[in-house]
Design goal:
- The protein has about 230 residues and is an all-alpha fold.
- It folds into two domains: about 55 residues, no CATH class; about 160 residues, no CATH class.
- It is about 50% helix and about 0% strand.
- The chain has 13 helices and two strands.
- A two-stranded antiparallel ribbon has the order 1-2.
- Helix 5 packs across helix 10 and helix 10 packs across helix 11.
- The longest helix is centred in the last third of the chain and has 27 residues.
- The chain is elongated.
- It holds the Pfam family zf-RVT.
- This is Reverse transcriptase zinc-binding domain-containing protein.
- It comes from Dendrobium catenatum.
- InterPro entries: RVT-Znf.
Length: about 230
């Protein structure tokens, strides 16, 4: 193994190695290499170890765990990641760039469309959210997306499976709200509240039906899984 012949960024060759081979290896000066892959001595390396080292110079984003977790789905997580970064092409941002679009929300029509309004100041989207996750109805003021994730992560009686289910559910809601918004704005297609919830529930069930603790999840999330 590499750990047997490399120590402190230099060669540590065995005494019995033939001289000609040792000479060839020693010509490679490990300390002079500006960029290289080093071996940390882990007997059973995994991709997570490599990724953690490779991205160690980047800032840690605390809320990333709400989106990229064991139960995440790439399609839903990608849109939620953009929503958290305020990168969806929503009316207020397009108008700031000089692009002429309607500024009104496609759901309630009466308010200015923005990331915070769409997720979840809008009456329509907030009703959808709380119908699926009733515990979020406790908010006195409408929460934004980050506050929703933060609230769910602090429910003490939730297991890790419960939390991952909630995080996935939020991502699915974010995605289908965005799909519905685009359908209303560009295709004159619209679903009512019940139809929206049915689509979201179907998408969630399709993802979690094979989860190990699926039956246990039904206790806390009967609105979705029953």
């Amino acid at each position: 193994m590499l750990t047997d012949v490399v120590a402190l960024n230099s060669w540590n060759l065995p005494v019995g190695l033939p001289a000609d081979i040792s000479s060839m290896i020693m010509k490679v000066d490990l300390s002079s290499l500006s960029q290289c892959i080093t071996w940390d001595g882990v007997g059973s390396p995994i991709s997570k170890t490599f990724s953690k080292s490779f991205y160690s110079n980047l800032d840690d984003i605390g809320w990333a765990k709400f989106i990229w977790h064991k139960g995440s789905a790439l399609r839903y997580a990608s849109y939620t990641w953009m929503a958290m970064h305020r990168k969806l092409k929503i009316a207020d941002l397009l108008i700031l760039k000089g692009i002429p679009v309607s500024s009104s929300c496609s759901f309630c029509v009466s308010n200015w469309e923005s990331h915070s309004h769409l997720y979840f100041e809008c009456d329509f989207t907030f009703r959808t959210l709380t119908a699926l996750l009733p515990s979020l109805g406790i908010f006195y003021l409408r929460p934004n997306l980050h506050q929703v994730y933060d609230f769910l992560s602090n429910i003490r009686h939730f297991s890790s499976f419960d939390s991952h289910f909630c995080y996935l559910t939020i991502s699915v809601i974010v995605y289908w709200i965005w799909r519905e918004r685009n359908g209303r704005k560009f295709s004159s297609l619209r679903k009512n509240q019940s139809e929206m919830m049915a689509v979201i529930i179907q998408a969630i069930r399709a993802k979690v039906i094979k989860w190990k603790h699926y039956d246990t999840l039904k206790v806390n999330f009967k609105e979705i899984l029953d």
